């Protein structure tokens, strides 16, 4: 039962405190990664593999020491690590200002707020595109900032959650198909794809189960294969379908409107869509906690203590 207790404690701690305001370990890790990049950078995959290993593996090894700690100390360490690895409250803190601005008809403020969530050109977005961008971000980051860490924590404990968050962070820093990172960042991009493969599909399934199941499953099945990202596609298609809303479609990046497949079906997005997307993620978190609780009862010796 210590597994589910740790997960509940971490989720409650996140709801209470949110992300640390003055110091977050991922911020420090970002500085470390930039330092490693400046010293090791080379336009070769092998160099990128070395940089990834130097950045991630020593930290995971240090966290792994917690598995031999006394039970009460391990519970505390695991709770703190998982709390720092998830960002459920931060989803709302980023998304709700967008919804509030749209409710008030303040498109300028809504664009500014969504610009803190997405990388597209927000200054040319109309209200519907702003709502779509924020909703897509909430759905996708439900996996990246919550369920991915929960999955790897269930599987490997605190080291798994740390491995996931560090790999996810390096993908955000190095996993671009630019001239600088296409080879150096290959390892970061591929590792993020690999470690997100199962969590993304479990996230998509969770959205289907706590939303409009028929639409969610149909959109996941029909629309996800057309999306560039093998993991974001299932998550956002299933989420949009579960919400019964139209997302996806063309979006502006670096001054050019890029063609993107449609996601979901139903009503066009609005301010309420953002709020509903947050509620969908939160219901899915409850579903995961209940699922782990059931596994703990049915298989008491099969989940890590």
* Spatial strand arrangement across the major sheet: 1-4
Which residues form runs of ≥5 with pLDDT under 50?
none
**How does the major sheet shape up?**
2 strands, antiparallel
How far apart the termini lie comes to 7 Å
Helix content: over 70%
| N-to-C order of helices and strands | HHHHHHHHHHHEEEEH
Q: Give the overall average pLDDT.
A: 93
Shape: globular
Output the radius of gyration: 19 Å
Transmembrane segments: 49-68, 145-167, 280-299
Membrane topology: Multi-pass membrane protein
Protein name: Cobalamin biosynthesis protein CobD
Subcellular location: Cell membrane
Q: What is the topology?
A:
Blueprint: H1 2-17, H2 25-40, H3 45-64, H4 71-85, H5 88-103, H6 107-114, H7 127-156, H8 158-174, H9 186-210, H10 213-223, H11 232-243, E1 246-248, E2 251-253, E3 256-258, E4 262-264, H12 271-298
Antiparallel strand pairs: 1-4, 2-3
Function: Converts cobyric acid to cobinamide by the addition of aminopropanol on the F carboxylic group.
Family: Belongs to the CobD/CbiB family.
GO molecular function, one term: threonine-phosphate decarboxylase activity
């Amino acid at each position: 039962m210590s597994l589910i207790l740790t997960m509940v404690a971490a989720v409650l701690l996140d709801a209470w405190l949110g992300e640390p305001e003055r110091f977050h370990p991922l911020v420090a890790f970002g500085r470390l990664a930039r330092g490693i990049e400046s010293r090791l950078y080379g336009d070769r995959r092998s160099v990128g593999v070395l940089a990834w290993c130097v950045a991630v593996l020593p930290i995971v090894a240090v966290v792994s020491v917690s598995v031999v700690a006394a039970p009460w100390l391990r519970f505390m360490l695991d709770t703190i690590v998982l709390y720092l690895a998830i960002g459920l409250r931060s989803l709302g803190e980023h998304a709700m200002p967008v919804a509030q601005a749209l409710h008030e008809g303040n498109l300028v403020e809504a664009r500014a707020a969504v610009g803190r969530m997405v990388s597209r050109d927000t200054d040319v977005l109309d209200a519907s595109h702003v709502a779509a961008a924020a909703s897509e971000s909430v759905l996708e980051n439900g996996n990246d900032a919550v369920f991915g860490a929960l999955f790897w924590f269930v599987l490997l404990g605190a080291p798994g959650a740390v491995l996931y968050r560090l790999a996810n962070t390096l993908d955000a820093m190095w996993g671009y198909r630019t001239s600088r990172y296409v080879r150096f960042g290959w390892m970061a991009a591929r590792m993020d794809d690999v470690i997100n493969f199962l969590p993304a599909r479990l996230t998509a399934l969770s959205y289907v189960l706590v939303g409009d199941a028929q639409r969610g499953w149909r959109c996941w099945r029909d629309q996800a294969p057309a999306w560039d990202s093998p993991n974001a596609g299932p998550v956002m298609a299933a989420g949009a379908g579960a919400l019964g809303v139209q997302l996806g479609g063309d979006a502006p990046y670096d001054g050019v409107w890029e063609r993107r497949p449609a996601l979901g079906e139903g009503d066009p997005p609005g301010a309420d869509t953002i709020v509903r997307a947050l509620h969908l993620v939160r219901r899915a978190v409850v579903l995961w906690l209940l699922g782990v609780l059931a596994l703990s009862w049915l298989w008491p010796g099969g989940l890590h203590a």
